[in-house]
Amino acid sequence: MKVAVTFWEGRISPLFETTRMLLVAKIERREVTEFHLEPFGCESEFSRVSRLDQLGIHVLICGGISRFFANLIEARNIRMIPFSAGRVEEVFDAFIRGTLFSNRFRMPGCGPRRDQGPGGAE
Questions:
Q1: Would you give per-residue pLDDT tens digits along the chain (122 residues)?
Q2: 72: helix, coil or strand?
Q3: Alpha-carbon distance 8 to 52, whole Å?
Q4: Sequence spans of domains, the chain
Q5: Which CATH fold would you assign to the domain 2-105?
């Protein structure tokens, strides 16, 4: 599976709409087998979401995101884990272990997670 994390200075970018970089990782058998930084300076809302689809992203982990973008992403059958925060390496590790839904990785002021299930990494 391919997982993308909005990336800014080693942390999850606080707002999907303004992020200019993704860290894309391929995860197999609960291990990151490859990863790379992917420029994400798209021209429009639709091209931004289309780029996720072109990259073959299955899961998007991001900070804040508008309902508009969330709807567009969900329409592409990309699983979202929004309002996440923290260092990217720790977030990937938590996703793989199924502990990303801990409040430790929740943006301040966003309340408890609704999806308390495991990360679902392969």
A1: 999 999 999 999 999 998 999 999 999 988 888 999 999 987 777 888 999 999 999 999 999 999 999 999 999 999 999 999 999 999 989 999 999 988 889 887 665 555 544 444 43
A2: helix
A3: 17
A4: 2-105
A5: Nucleotidyltransferase; domain 5 (3.30.420)
